[in-house]
Amino acid sequence: MDDLDRLPCIKQGLWFYGGVTCCHVRIVRDQMLHGSHDADDPPELALDRMMDCFYVRYDLPHAPRQPADWHDGGAALSLREAVFLAERRLGPSIHWND
Question: The pTM is what?
Answer without folding.
Answer: 0.84
